[in-house]
Design brief:
- The complex is a heterodimer of chains A (309) and B (831).
- Chain A is α/β, with parallel strands linked by helices and 309 residues long.
- Chain A contains twelve helices and 13 strands.
- Chain A has a nine-stranded mixed β-sheet with strand order 7-1-2-8-9-10-11-12-13. A two-stranded antiparallel sheet of chain A has the order 3-6. In chain A, strands 4-5 form a two-stranded antiparallel sheet.
- Chain B has 831 residues and is an alpha/beta fold.
- Classes of the chains: A alpha/beta (309), B alpha/beta (831).
- Chains A and B meet through strand 1 and helix 5 of A and helix 28, helix 31 and helix 32 of B.
Amino acid sequence: MMGAMERHVQGLVFNIQRFCIHDGPGVRTTVYIKGCSLRCNWCSNPESWNTFPEIMPFDKKCIKCGACIQVCPNNAISWVNGARTIKWEECNQCLRCSEVCPAKAIEQIGFNISPHELLQEIEKDRIFYDLSEGGVTFSGGEPLVQWEFVLNALKLCKQHGIHTALDTTGNIRPDIFVQVLEFVDLMLYDVKHLNPQLHIERTGVDNQLILENLNNVKKVNPHTKLWIRVPVIPGFNDSPEYAIDLVNLAANTDADKISLMPYHSLGDHKFERLGRTYPLKGIPALQKVDVEEQQKILVNAGLSVSIGS
Amino acid sequence: MGVSPSSKEGITSKYLLEAVTVTKMAKGESSMTNVISFEDRIAGLRSGYFPPSYTPCIGDISVERARLVTEAYKANDGLPIEIKRAKGLEATLNNISIYISDNDLIVGNVVSRPRSVEVFPDIACDWIIEEIDTLSTREADKWEISDADKGELLEICKWWQGKTMEDRVRFLVGEEEFGLLNKVVFQSTTGQSTGHNMIIPDYASFFKKGFNGIIADVEEKLKECDPTDGNNLDKITFYKAVLIVAKAAIQYGHRYAELAREKAKNETNAWRKAELLQIAETCDHIPGNPVRNFRDALQMVTFVHTVQCLDSAALANGIGKFDSYMYSYYKKDIENGTLTKAEAQELLECFLLHFNDSKLFWPALCALYSAALYGTHVLTLGGVNEQGLDASNELSFLVLDCYKHLKMAQPELTVHMHKDTPDEFLKSVCELLRMGTGHPKIGMVETLEKMKASEPQPFTPVDLRNLAWVGCGENCVPGKDRGGPDWTWSTGGCIALEMALNNGVNRTYGEKWGVETGDASKFNSFEEVMDAWEKQTASMLRHVVIWRSATLRAHQQLLPAPYRSIFVYDCIGRGKDILSGGALYKGQSGATIGTTTTADALAGIKKVVFDDKKCTMKELLDALATNWEGKEALRQLFVNAPKFGNDDDYVDLIARRVSSFQDNTLRSFTNEFSGVFRNTYVHPTSGIPVGRMVGATPDGRFAGEPLNEGGISPHQGRDVKGPTAVIKSVSKIDWTTNAGGILNMKFSPSAVAGEEGLQGLMTLLKAYNRLGGYHVQFNVINLETLMDARKHPEKYQNLIVRVGSYCSYFTHLSEVMQDNIIERTQHELVL
């Protein structure tokens, strides 16, 4: 009995960020869940992709003590021109280097935490939620990759009277989605593109499940607020025509708000630190003004629209 | 962005229109009449407070006040000290150069010419003689002085040698203790170069009397004094001194009236001529007589405050709960149609600008402690009224608008917040906050009241509700607290910790300052470390009390304060000077430095040595002794130990223990009037110079690096969990055992942009209030702006930043301090 619960009780989280004021109403704590089923090439949190803990080096902090080189069982770390350098193809993410690094110059991304421990962390800012009608937001990665953990955590938060938001791509089995939905006050629902082919090209997955689940939000749980979040990517979904598609989508799904999230390139250096290549290298970030035309179309259609939150 | 009334509305003054017409008719000519617009007037006045082009110097030294006081002392050599002090102030008020700035509507300046500073050799003069050649080249607060003035000032200082307040302190404590005090009570030199300050006059009562009312009261009192009783002779002397200064203050007003009439004679613009005549009319009435209207009230505060600053080199003085005591005059004038809201704003802005005159001339070391601290003048808004209900009113909003428009460093604005502060007011406050002018700081009424109520003195509930801000982080009851001539910055917890780890020896100086607490390498538990730290702290704080007692006594003997006694109850009634038992409340306060760095360092030892057992005490002590040389990996363990400001009980509770111990140790001493010695956590930038005295510490800090700035703020850059965590950590300090402390937080504008940002700020303040926080202030500034300001100071002359607990101009700060500000954590949002 305990065994079954115990197996799922731990979650892998890579950040718990307090005082978030752009992830739903009020002051919120955002919990970043590790693991993602999509591979969006504009991703700003590539350290979230894998469902296992991994290392992310921070060269500036390195004190060149060599402890990581000594401890690496695969000889994946060596001095190159006086700098500690990781051969990523040799690294099997055993994490020993990050354990011995005294300067935290090799960070471990992802730590295990139980729903109760997580609740304790979330409770720390309870007074700020109460005063601002804020709460907790589960983000990622895709939080539903660890849906059992997230479901437990959501239930606990609801039991303790904490407003819950789920920032999701919706790429999950509909039966699971519906189970989770019951404990979510606000869906921050990411929609990258309505065209299946383009969706596969840029995220690696089809959008069929995503759209199906999106359609279900209000039908299954009318009390859940639905904010559709659109990462506006240059040359992908930033056209005025696409905004018209969004108008229809919002109408069909009974969405309460559309959030336009202009593309920024902050994921760039993270790709580098993880030994990966940033697919959108050199593409400049969008400014507020770049999404104003889309915003206008959405507003004219009578929708509630925000930019960047 | 600024909020200014339309100039159209500004010209509706019936009085002026009539005056202009009368002038024209009397002259029988059509002289020109140019209406001075609100924007032109304020822009012109405002620019007068900045040097014409960028110069490293703040301004220049004026010898006038020093000369006049010295001459008065020489001429009255045989008279009692109270009379000599009064004669010195009288000579100053009668003779110091005065001026009226172009288009100003309020008059009275604490300097004899714009952008200068007066000197107070009567307080301390040795440092002036020592530093006179380096004033324009020193690290912080540079001053120019002409060769002629330099020669005269040196002569004056030589006359004062051996006679100053500082000399008296030296005599009272003895040479050996004096030498040690200048290290352990690190900024004792501050107390010895600034005079009695930190009082707030009871303006509400004084408005009804004026100085003539005081003179009548005192003359009545004099009649009651039976000179056959020897005890009464001291009272009589005190009363005579009060009469001298009260009459001199009235005369000072008449001098401005005369000057205004003089200027009016030569004024070609009929509009300005009428304004000058109105100033003359006001200054013949004020400060001698009761306040009739809003304009009188503003002029009264300006005169009273100006004379206060000319009388004593003041680190900080309060203006009181401004919107509360001014409101009835404002309301009456608005209701009877003699004042429009726009005129009120124009007068208010002229009034507020005057506080930017004031500068403080003090030693290089003090300047480093609190650079560009031009004497803090604190204006309080909001709070609760005497019934305990919200006190904000229409005038509160108008004053906020003035601050949004003026963007000047002084007067410091404090808003008193309580649990029922209306959202609308709080929102206007937060809008001002995020403009990045550094105003206002926020004080929490409930905590203030609790703090004061925990003192042994019997504060009445009404007095507690009347509390107003008086310094960087202190508060007092207007017209009832005696203020502080004996303020101290003691070197605090890190110095004590170093001595605890070195058996009483300070590593930087190689001198034994503390007591013997044993060989720290043999300490077997964290409690043994704490025990040694407590013993060293107690020994240090004893020196602090010695210093404070001697300084108070020296002030009583050499710098009695008949002028300031006028405004504080019940000096006149008792016939006693404010410093010698005349005031109702008589506590003493001073700050200890580096408390959160100390907590981090202690937590480092607990975590790395005793909990994780990653090194021994011996290894740690060796690493500290060599400033972590070759021990970088070990140092990193301490760098990564828990740090204050992250809502982590592990270290936050150590911080509470550290602060409570310091507070209670000081509270165990009482002064001669049964007032307690209170500790505070108010030290603007003192973490920098004290840091230079402290060797490497077990928080991973290198020798000489700054300690935490801003009182109880987390050590720069160590608060990584965001603002809610900072607020929670700071709320764990016991604010009932001390007299306050400052929390400084920095945001980039993007972090508080938009409606979400505004609501975010409001939420932080509300939560801080509910959690029992005491004080918080925000820097809203972006990193790029600061970096650019470092490179191109000429472009950023007006850039105001919060330096610890007060506002100043970024470009006036030393490089070290600019770095320090830049380094502080940017509360960026996660993306």
